[in-house]
Amino acid sequence: MKYKLAFLAMALGFAFIGHSQVSIDGPTCVLAGVEYQYLISTDDTAGTGIQICLQGGTYVGTENTCLNDSLVSFVLVMWNAGIDSASISFNSPSGSATSTISISTPLEPGAIDTAYLYNTIGYDSTISNIHCYAATGGNCSPSYSYQWEQSSDNLNWDDIENATDQDLDVSVTLTHTSYFRRRVSETNSGTVGYSNTATVFVSRDQSMHLKKKAHTHFADTIALTRTISNTTAICSL
Fold it and tell me: What is the pTM of this model?
């Protein structure tokens, strides 16, 4: 009799554990306004008594925050903006489960300081610093990778070698007006964003630079000719 009671207690214990198997699987770091799927696992065989409720979100395509008496394997949720955390909870005769959700702000790539938006330099001169504010958002625990880019037409962009810091701090020599921006990648979510654009004007174009070089060469030639003429005259005496 004692062994029968022990076996019954053991059987009831395992039955209780098995009967209360409930889980919610899905993203716990999310962006507001984006559709997410959550998988529901339960031993329930009927929807009676089941309640799946959201705090800080709604079910996709509805304004509902709770599903009642519905036996489903997944739900589609859209989380609200303007809050930091939310939750999804499942309650049924089999048991309960809750998943806490952290809501991240969208990736903000950072803006170039207004003092650096428009600058003018001379032909064949260098630009060596552009300050850009740090990126924010994109993930609950963000990690950012920066890459500065350069363009001659503000349409087609090339990476600047070794320019991977928050600010542009490598020297770039320019012979024509150029545009600069910073690309940021949030490595956990894979999202990418771009700063606004800085314009660096070159005050003299190449033709003026070549004219100046030609003029200098011509002046040097005249001076050399005069020197030779003077030397010849002295030798003649």
Answer: 0.69
